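Notes from the 1:1 (GR / supervisor)

We went over the backlog. Supervisor wanted to see one worked example end to end before approving the batch request, so GR pasted a single chain during the call. The sequence is below; no edits were made to it. Supervisor asked that the structure be written out right there so they could see what the output format looks like.
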Amino acid sequence: DFSVAVPDDPSLPSGEVQKKLDNLTVLAVGDTTDETTVIVSAQVSDPDPGDQLRLLVELRPVGVAFTGTATDTSGSVANGATAAVGIPGLSDDTDYHWQIRALDQTGRTGAWKSFGGNPESAADFHVAEPDPPSVQALSLGQFKLDGVTPIDTGSTTDENRVTLKATVEDPDPGDQILLEVEVKPFGTPFSGSPTLQSLPVTSGQVTEVVWTGLANDSYHWRVRARDQAGDTSGWLEFGTSGVDFAVNVP
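Structure output shown during the call:
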């Protein structure tokens, strides 16, 4: 006598979840992560006792259709255990969707299961890695109070107020950026503490600060950009190593 046991295909994975790199922070459907690695996990099972299983993941940017070819594979786990796979190298400012299936040690695979229960045109998660803002080096300008009349580098103004301008940028969509300015009498070194800051603007816009109550003296100044998350650019000095402007109010 003998018996025949035809191997079965693995079952649909269950309990699928997406997490941040710490493998603790769960990303709900449609959530945004500030990391370029995501961890996908699910419980894999098979009607055949003793099978060893892997989790196959196909992850694509939203707008790119699934092909049925796995892009990532977990290590082997016991039947009924949870398998996880870390997926690095994701693109910034990109929406992703993904699907999974199980693979047993014989090469048999189960059916694909899409994550999220949402349309494939919708994001399962979004990557938005924070980038620091910047100041356009050639955009710095110093003007009289009207904001129009330029003050040439090293020249003297007869007003005790100046308008300082720059264009700020940030690669992160929707960020709000303000301009921080440090102004010191010439000969006094910069301390790294902003003297004034502008109102926030969006990337690519010109922003300005107006400094009033200046004493008759010579000055130098520098700027940096700051976004709403507190990330800053490096300091950028106006002019060269000499006097940027002088004030002489009769």
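Supervisor's comment: The chain has a mean pLDDT of 94.
Batch request approved.
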